[in-house]
Amino acid sequence: MGKKKEVVEAVETNETDETVALAVETFTLKSICEELGMNPAAARRKLRSKFSKAEGDFRWEFDADGKAEVVAILTAKPEPKAKAKAKAEAEAEETAEA
To answer: At 83, is the pLDDT very low, low, confident or very high (cuts 50, 70, 90)?
Structure first.
């Protein structure tokens, strides 16, 4: 299994007014790539084309929901170029008509 990190996402007060930190498990892109048997550099390249540019300090770390999204993107089969081009043209025509 890959590396997992725990970070504090929020602080909550319990019934006795004690402050309790809620831990959230995060996964690095490197550990996700190790699970998938994929090169991290190739994964970053693919993800950059799918994610919008992050402002500030962005590290390739994800929570459980983010990990599921990353795995889905990295394991998706690419569309054939001709099909992707036809789809893009159809969408462009629909927006031009509207």
So the answer is: confident
